[in-house]
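Lab notebook, design round three. We kept the backbone fixed and only want residue identities now. Task for the bench partner: fill in a sequence for the structure below.
Input structure tokens:
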């Protein structure tokens, strides 16, 4: 009997001490741009102020849901170059995002490509205060003149850059499960002019380029040993034209505390549910 007690006692002690019996949480690294960092959404993460990360962005919410140990290096303004090189911000220099990866990283999310393609600039260039019948010019007409598609070409050029990032992720974190996160639905078919001041055909062009980028990301993920997380479909009906309590993304003039043309807190909660479900498998 005494021998049995001596054998069982260490096990009981281990179970009674928090953290002894359970394994350390899996390491999760979040990489990406402002669609992931959540600029201006309260409250700010001040670990790198120039990146305008929120404490309520989807990487942090998903990590909390799943009990993962998160390193969030997402940064507003980031493009694929900033995965490999330091990123200059207005409030300091952010290290290369890939430097956050280690051999024991278990989960990686990557949301990148929008800044490589210049899609925020595209949306801003399509802003038209005056109605179509009165004056102004269509950005869609301008960017597709002469048989070219200027932003279509820019989006296509993102593919090799994402391929290179995925290869680097696998090299630095060979055991990690990698998730490439797409971009959400920003505009409905034909937009909602004048509530959001983009003409119908221009709204369709903007969303078409976002959809094209999502396909580029999905194809890169499939070829690069990663899983693609579709945010476009869950975001349907939650675009910038919807009410402030419903939409996931803010229009040019936000009503929620978030950056223009970026996810708000509601959007981040919705995206965290989708991303968390993908990670949980």
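Proposed sequence:
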């Amino acid at each position: 009997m005494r021998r049995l007690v001596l054998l069982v006692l260490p096990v009981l002690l281990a179970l009674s001490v928090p953290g002894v019996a359970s394994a350390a949480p899996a390491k999760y690294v979040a990489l990406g741009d402002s669609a992931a960092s959540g600029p201006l959404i309260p409250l700010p993460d001040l670990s790198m102020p120039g990146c305008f990360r929120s404490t309520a962005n989807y990487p942090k919410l998903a990590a909390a849901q799943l009990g993962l140990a998160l390193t969030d290096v997402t940064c507003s303004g980031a493009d694929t170059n900033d995965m490999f090189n330091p990123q200059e911000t207005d409030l300091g220099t952010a290290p290369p995002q890939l430097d956050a990866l280690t051999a024991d990283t278990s989960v990686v999310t990557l949301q990148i490509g929008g800044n490589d393609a210049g899609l925020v600039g595209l949306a801003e260039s399509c802003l038209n205060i005056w109605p179509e019948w009165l004056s102004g010019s269509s950005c869609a007409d301008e960017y597709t003149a002469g048989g070219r598609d200027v932003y279509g070409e820019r989006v296509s050029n993102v593919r090799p850059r994402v391929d290179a990032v995925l290869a680097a992720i696998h090299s630095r974190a060979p055991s990690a499960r990698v998730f490439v996160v797409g971009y959400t639905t920003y505009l409905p078919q034909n937009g909602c002019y004048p509530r959001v001041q983009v003409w119908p055909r221009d709204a369709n062009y903007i969303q078409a380029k976002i959809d094209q980028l999502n396909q580029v990301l999905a194809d890169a993920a499939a070829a690069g040993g990663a899983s693609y997380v579709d945010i476009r479909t869950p975001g349907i009906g939650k675009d910038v034209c919807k009410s402030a309590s419903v939409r996931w993304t803010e229009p040019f003039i936000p009503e929620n505390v978030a950056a223009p043309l970026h996810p708000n807190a509601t959007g981040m909660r919705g995206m965290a549910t989708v991303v968390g479900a993908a990670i949980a498998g």
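Keep this in mind before ordering anything: Residues 27-117+153-185+210-280 form a domain with the Rossmann fold fold (CATH 3.40.50.1110).
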